[in-house]
Amino acid sequence: MGKCLSWLQERIRHWIKPATATLICGLLSDLPRSGTDLLVENAYLRQQLIVLNRQIKRPQLTNPDRFRLVFLAHLTKFWKQALHIVQPDTMLRWHRELFRFYWKRKSQGKPKISAETIDLIRRMAGENRLWGAERIRGELLKLGIAVSKRTIQKYMPKDRQAHSSSQTWATFLKNQAGVMWACDFTVVYDWMFRAWYIFVVLELKTRRIVHMGVTKYLTNAWTAQQLWEATPWGRVPKYLIRDRDSKYAEHF
Length: 252
Description:
The protein has 252 residues and is an alpha+beta fold. The protein folds into 3 domains: 2-85, no CATH class; 115-155; 170-241, no CATH class. Helix content is 52%, strand content 12%. Helix 1 (2-15) packs antiparallel against helix 2 (18-30) and helix 4 crosses helix 6 (88-107). Residues 161-165 have low confidence and may be disordered.
């Protein structure tokens, strides 16, 4: 076991940068140790950090150092007790900056909306006076064109007025609020930027949450099950509002 670990540590030092290799090799060397040895070593290192804090007012950390500290903090709920060279608020700020950097890099390189799509949006809005941005978005999705609602609103005529004697959508919602529910998804992200899907069913008249479900692995069957759980004993609304999201599949 010891020879295998030594060989693996030597390979890691050869393949990876020195700072990262030192951290990984240290973790590997802890595998055969007992819990008592690790506790004593932890106390030993903690005492040295206390001495270090007396002499160095502001240690210099690189971006890889910050990333490793944020990553390791995710693995233990006692990270605040083990933190000595920076404040907990600083760690949380690093995580927020890393989160912004992650989504900035992920959003780069996406193609801008084409001139043909802009013309199509304006044509749909001009020929269908009662269509809003959400309805146009749904029609574009049928054509395989994915555009956000905000982008569609950007290219729609600002002064468009709907000349119609029919009941407006706002009036319909007001009149039917007592027998109407609405459902929608939202997404949150944990420390490792993994997506968690939250499904909410709301009663419009009272604004009361009828049902809520959370999952990491979103499936057609799971979404349909949420609707069953939201309507026990035959208690169902007359209308259920939802968008055209692909999450509402055949089972739903």
